[in-house]
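Researcher: Please generate the 3D structure of the following complex. Treat every line as part of one assembly.
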Amino acid sequence: MSLERPSPFAAVLETALAWALGALWLAPLLYAVWTAFHPPDFATRFDLFAPLTLDNFRRAWEAAPFARYFLNTVAIVAIVVFAQIVLGTLAAFALARFTFRGRDLVFALILLQLMIAPEILAVANYRTMRAIGAVDTIWGIVLPYLTSAFGIFLLRQTFRTVPQDLEDAARIEGCGTLGVLWRVYVPAARAVYLAYGLVQASWHWNNFLWPLIITNSVETRPLTVGLSVFASVDQGIDWSVITAATLMTSGPLLVAFLVFQRRFVQSFASAGLR
Amino acid sequence: MRSPTRLDEPPRGRFRWPFAGSGRRTVEAWLLLLPSIVLFAAFTHVPFLRTFVDAFHSTPKGRRPSHFVGLDNWVDLAHDPIFWKALTNNTLYALGTIPLAVGLALAMALFVNGRIPGRAALRMAYFTPTVLPMIAVANIWLFFYTPDYGLFDQIGGLFGLAATNRLGDPSTALIAVMAVAVWKEAGFFMIFYLAALQQIPPDLREAAAIEGASRFTFFRRVTWPLLAPVTLFILVNAVINAFRTVDHIFMMTGGGPDNATNLLLFRLYELGFKFWDQAQASALTVVLIVVLASVALVQFVFAGRKVHYR
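Model: Done. Output below.
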C-alpha cells in the first residue's frame, strides 16, 4: 500500500467507510425533514409515495408565537454582532498599537473571559440584571455578550500585522486616531470581520441557557427558548408538528449555511485557529 | 535616535495640546478601551469576585439578609449526593464523548482531505449538525429515542427486538445524551483538523513517497506529529464544551431519570434558578470555575512546550 497509489481495494474501502459515516451523520436530518414534510400518519412510517404537505409548518406557526420569537432572535443577533465588532475594534486597536502603562494587565484580564463564559456566572449576573431592572428584556439577554474577549483577541492579532507605515502615512495626511482606525485598520481586517461575524451570528442564534434564565415572556424569548417551551408544553407528542417547528427555527441558519458553505467552514476554521 | 515617522510625540517647539505627546496617546488608548472594560467589569470580573464572596455567605431570605457562614456552604456541597453524581456524570460524559468525537473528527478530516468521490457533499454532511441549535438537535434525537415510534425502536423492531426506553432508563440515559454530543461536535472539530491538514507542505508527501513510506507510516511519522498543536487546541475546546453545553439535557431528560444525566452546569441551574439557593449555587460556580481554570492552565503549560511546525 504505497503512499501515492493506494491499492484499489484500500481506495474502495476508504470511500465506503467515509460514505457510511456520512450517511450516519445525515440520517437524523433527513429523517427530520421526512417527518416534517409528510402528514402525521407517515411520521414513523416510510413510504416513498406518501403525500407531501406543508401543513405541519402551518400548524406549528399558528400554535405558538414564532413570528415574535424570530423577531427577538434577529434583534439579539444583530445587536450582539454589531456591538462586539464595534467595541472589539476599538479595544483591539488600543491593545495592538498603543503603548501605555497597564496594557498587558488589561489584556490579561480581558482574556479571563475566554475561560469564564457569561453563562457560568449566571447566578451573579442574574442579580445584576434584577438590580438594574433588565430581567425579561432584550437588553438583559444581550448585555453580558456585548463585548467579547475572543473578538478582541482576534482583531488585535490582525491589527498587529498592519504595517506601521500605513498608519503614519494616514496621520501625515491629517487623519486623527479614529480616522486612522477607519481608513487603515478596518479595511485591513475585512475578512476577519466576516469570519467572526458568521461564527458569532450562528452562536447567538443558537444560544439557549442564559436567555432561558433571564426571560419569562413571549415578548423577549428567542427562538431556542420558544422552541423548548413549545416542544415540552404545548404539543404533547405530535412529532410532525414539533419536527416542523424544529426545522423552521434552524431554517434560516441552515439556508445561510448551504449558500455560504465554503465561507462558513473557512470562517469557523480561521476564527478558531488564529 | 528618534524615527521621524513616529508620531507618538510631536516635534518640539510647536504648540502642545493638553495631553500632548505620549500622555495624549495614553488617554486615547483608555478611551478606546473604556466601553469594553466597563462591560467586562460589570459582567465578568465583578460577578467573578462576587461569586467567591457569596460562596462563604448564606442565601438572603425575606428580611434576613445574607451573612457570613464560613465553610458551611462547602460542607453542604460536600454532603450533597446529587453534586457528586453530577460531577461523576460530567467526568464520564467528558471521557466518553471527547475521544470519540475527536477521533471521528480526525477520520472525517482525513477522508475529506483526500481525493474521495463526493468530497464537498461529504464535508457538508459531516459539518451540518454543527450549524443547528443544540435545542433543535435534542428535539430530533428525542424523537429517535421515543419508545416504539422512534427510529431506533423501528429498526430494532425489524430484527424482533422489544421496545426500549433509552432515555428513561438510568443505565442507558447518559450514553444516549452522549451520542447526541458526539454527533453534534465531531464535524466542528473536523474543520480544525482539515485546516491544519491543508497547511502540511506537499513536498513532505512527495519526499515520503520517494522513500517508499506506506500511508500508515506517513500518518504516524509525519501527519500526526504535525497535528499535535491542533489536537491540543481541539482537546481544550472539547473539555470546555463538555462542562459548558447542557442545552440538550434540558430538552431530553431534565437531568433525570434519578439524576442519571445531571451535569454540573445543569445542577447549577437547578440550584440557582429552581431552588433559588444562591449560597449553594455560588459554591458550585466556584467548582466549575476551578475546573475550567485547570483546563486553561493545562493548555498554557502544554502550548508553551509543544513543537510548532512554523
